Amino acid sequence: MATESSDEVPDAYGEFEDHVRRVSYLNDAGGVLSWDQQVTMPAGGTPARSKQTAALSSVTHDLLTDDRVSDWLDELDDTDLSADQRAVVREVRREHERAARVPEELVSKISETASNALPVWEEAKAEDDFDAFAPTLEEMVELRREYAAAIDPDRDPYEVLFEEYEPYLGLDTAERVLERLREELVPLIDDIKASDVELADPFDGEYDTDTQEELVRAALDELGYDWDRGRLDTAPHPFSTGTQFDARVTTRFDPSDPLDALGSTVHEFGHASYTLGLPDEAYGTPLGESRDLTVHESQSRLWENHVGRSRAFADFFAPTVADHLGVDLSARELYEAANQIYPDNLIRVEADELTYHMHIILRFEIERDLIAGDLDVEEVPAVWNEKMEEYLGVRPDGDGEGCLQDIHWTHGNFGYFPTYSLGSVLAAQLYASADDEIGDVDGQTREGEFGALHDWLTDNVHRHGCRYETDDLVREATGEAFTADYFLDYARGKFGDLYEL
Fold first, then answer.
1. Among 42, 218, 303, 497, which residue's Cβ finds the most Cβ atoms within 10 Å?
2. CA nearest 419: which of 490, 363, 486, 472?
C-alpha cells in the first residue's frame, strides 16, 4: 500500500485505491500514445491514433465518473483515514466531481479533435497559413467553452480551464503575478536595450545534429539523468512525459544555435527529474503524481536557468562545450552567450529569460479573450502581431513564427501558459531556499556536483507527490507563501551585473 495507513485500512479505501490506480494506468498509457505520435509515429497513422486516444479517454472518463467512486467518497468521508489517505481522497474527489459533470461524448470529441488537429497545425505552421488551422482552432475553442460550462456554468470559463493545470493557486494569483512581472521586467528590459554592453556570442558557425546530440547527452550524463528510466529523442516542440519508471525527454536542434538544444534539454531534464523523483511505491495514486504545472515548471526552469545558465555551470561545462563543438571559448563567454537578451526574438521557446515572460503574457491575454468570446479566432493573427510589437517591438513575418508557433492550442490546453511564468517565479524561491539550507550550491555546481541540490528537491518537492496543495507545498519547502520577490531580485541582480546597469 502506497499510503501511510492507520492500524487497519478500511475495506472501502482499499477498493477505492485499486480503482484509482486503474484510472492512472490508463492515463499513462494515453501519455505513451501521445509521445509516440509526436516522436516516432508515421504521419499516416493519425486517423487510427485519434480513434485510439479517443477510446482511451472515454474509458478513463467512465472509470473516473463511475457511481462507485461517488459511493466510496461518501463512505470515506466518515472514515478515520491517515493524512496521506485523506490527500488521495481530496485529489480524486476534485477530479471526479469535475469529470462527472462533463458528458463522455464531449471528452471523446475533445480527444479526437486534438489528435486530428496535430497534423493540421504542423502543416499550417510550415506553410505560414493560419487560415488553414483556423477552423480547427475554432472547433477546439467551442469544445473547451462547452467543457468549462459543463463543469460550472456560473463561473468564468477561463478560470475553470486554468484550474485544469493549476487548481490551487487561483487565477487571481496568476493575474497578479503576471501584472507584476509586466510592470517590473519591462523597465529592466528597456534599460538593457539602452545599455552599450555587448555580450559575447562565440557561436558563429553551423553545428551538425550528431555533434549537438553528443553535447546534450553529455549534459544529461553530468546532471545525473537516469538512462535506465528515460531516453532522449527529438520533437518539433520539445517536451517531457512519463512516470517515475519511465520519464522521457525530447529536444530539437538548430544548426546555428547549439545553446538552444542545450537549454531545451536541460529544461526537459528538470521535468524528468521531478517525475523520476516521485515515490515508486505510490505509483498509480495522487501521492505518486506531480503537483500540477506550476510546480512542474518550477523544476524545469530551476535547472535550465538557475543551474544551466549560471556562471558556475559555465565554469564547469565550458570545456565540454568547447570540446564537442570545436570552438575556442572561455567560461565567461559561455555564460554571456547563454544569457543574451533578445527583445526582437519572435519565438517563445527560443526566448531569453526575461523577455520570455512577455511571450507568456501575450498568449495569456489572447486565449483568455478567445475563451470569453471577446476575440474571434480570425482576429488572432492581427492581435498577436500587435501585441508582439507593443511588448517586444517586433512583428512576425508569417504565422509560423507568430500565432502558430506553439502546440498548446492544438491540444486545447487553454489556461496552460500562465503556469510557465508561475513556475519561473517558484523556481527562484525554491533555489534560494535550497541554497540557504545546502550552502553554496553555486560552488557545488562549479565542481560538477549536483547530488545535494537534486536530493533537496526530491526531499522537499518530488517525494510529496500531491500530498499537499500548492500553497502548502511551497510553505513546506521554503517556509514562506508563494512570492515573486525572489525571482525579481534574482533577475535584477543577474542581468544588472551582466549589462552593467
1. 303
2. 363
Q: Are 27 and 8 in contact (CB under 8 A)?
A: no
Helix/strand/coil for 250: strand
| Residues 6+ positions from 403 with CB-CB distance below 8 Å | 130, 366, 380, 381, 384, 396
**246 phi/psi in degrees, rounded to 5:** -160, 85
Question: Could you tell me the CA-to-CA distances from 425 to 102, 213, 306 in Å, in that order?
Answer: 33, 30, 11
Catalytic one of 268, 289, 297, 367: 268
CATH class of 171-498: mainly alpha
The count of other CB atoms within 10 Å of the CB of residue 201 is 11
Task: Quote the cell numbers at residue 409.
Answer: 492550442
257-307 per-position pLDDT tens digit: 999 999 999 999 999 999 999 999 999 999 999 999 999 999 999 999 999
Contact predicate 436/477, CB 8 Å: no
Q: Return d(Cα 243, Cα 166) in angstroms, integer.
A: 19
Strand partners, 242: 247
Q: Are 399 and 274 in contact (CB under 8 A)?
A: no
244-263: pLDDT as tens digits: 999 999 999 999 999 999 99
Q: Tell me whether residue 268 is one of the annotated catalytic residues.
A: yes
Residue-range domain boundaries for the chain = 11-154, 171-498
Distances (CA, A) of 275 to 120, 158, 205: 31, 28, 36
What's the gap between Cα 413 and its chain centre?
12
Instruction: Report whether 430 contacts 457 (CB < 8 A).
Output: yes
The residue among 52, 169, 29 whose CA lies nearest residue 470 is 169
Q: Which residue has the cell 539550507?
A: 437
Give dist(CA 241, CA 423) in Å, integer.
Answer: 17
CA distances 255 to 207, 208, 213, 261, 406, Å, are 5, 6, 11, 10, 21
C-alpha span between 300 and 304 (Å, rounded): 6
